[in-house]
Amino acid sequence: MSEPIAFIGLGAMGGPMALNILKKGTNLSVYDIEKEKMQAHIKTGAVPGNNIKDTVEDADIVITMLPSTENVKSVITDPNGVLSYIKPGSIILDMSTIAPTGTDEIYEICKQKNIDFIDAPVGRLVSHAISGDSLFMVGCDNEDAFKKIEPLLNAMGTTIIRCGKVGSGIRAKVVNNFQILSIAQITAEALTLSQKIGLDLNTFKEVNAGTTANNGQFHINFLSKVLKNDIEPGFTIDLAHKDMGLAIETANSFRVGLPVGSSVQAVYGQARSGKFAKKDFSALLDYACELAEVDPPRIKKS
Ligand code: NAD
Question: Does residue 282 surpass a pLDDT of 80?
């Protein structure tokens, strides 16, 4: 990939994703408001930007990986944002998880400026972003633009799912995250109950894996994080609360009820009011155990 690419937002996900692009020898400029987040990329050959103008003015493709709808809107559409400096005919690839209505709005503004906008939110965990094994849900019906971003997606992940027109990727992401985050809470409750009534974790794990209760939150996420006594993010409870909110907001606007989802959202809301806000979402288990006054289970080192 010889054309210049810009990457904005080098956090838990964007950081390793940008590094994987760099490792392909890409000409990459990077920008994060927290300057120290750019250090690893500078060491790997990236050009650091001092501001958005610096970062994007030569780029053919600008990637954004930012926390919220407001962040993405302001970085792209503010007077000092990407659209003020990007070359006509370039592509903006937003990989953040934001409100579908926000994606639609930004897409319309980009169209008026002759800029292609593609949504490609990311599935799977930070560990997959690090190893280059992410999954992408792509909203794009412009084949020429897709061909240009495809090598970047291949550098960052293993699985590309074409969801349809612009905005369909983010819609798939919001629905899928609603399910993931709800299953995480059910898993936390089940493991808390199992602990409280004295079941052995390894035995219960075996039972669970052999039945249809088997799920990725227990067997992939919790077992690689909280059950190993690691509750550093990963994906924070704060961001999980944001994503449940996106699902509920979307459901409300289509008159779809998500009664279980609304209860789960309330749990994330309470968990983020205290010390768990910036912890990994698998720490829902520790929060539930705290309420049940039981020591949180941990997997024994073999
Ligand atoms: P993060 O908070 O770790 O990183 C966000 C980064 O954006 C930070 O480094 C922050 O300094 C930077 N930033 C914020 N505003 C900025 C601005 N105006 N200009 C430049 N940089 C700015 O978040 P994350 O976990 O990397 O998540 C990013 C997005 O990806 C979110 O929408 C999240 O929901 C989604 N996501 C996260 C995961 C995960 O497991 N962490 C997985 C899939 C998707």
Answer: yes
Structure tokens given for 233: 């993010």
Mutate to test the pocket of ligand 1, among 53, 65, 95 (most ligand atoms within 8 A of CB): 65
36 CB less than 6 Å from ligand 1? no
Give the mean model confidence (pLDDT) for residues 279-288: 98
Distances from the Cα of 191 to the Cαs of 15, 138, 183, 185, 278, in angstroms? Answer: 32, 35, 12, 10, 22
Does a cis peptide bond (omega within 30 degrees of 0) precede residue 210?
A: no
The full set of domains in the chain, from first to last, is: 5-166 (3.40.50.720), 171-292 (1.10.1040.10)
Known catalytic membership, residue 173: yes
Distance 67 CA to ligand 1 centre (A): 4
Give the nearest ligand 1 atom to 31 CA.
Answer: 20
Atom of ligand 1 nearest to the CA of 243: 34
- CB of 188 within 8 A of CB of 284? yes
Q: What is the pTM of this model?
A: 0.96
Residue in the structure block whose two tokens are 């949504």: 119
Contact 60, 91 (CB under 8 A): yes
How confident is the model at residue 2, as a pLDDT? 77
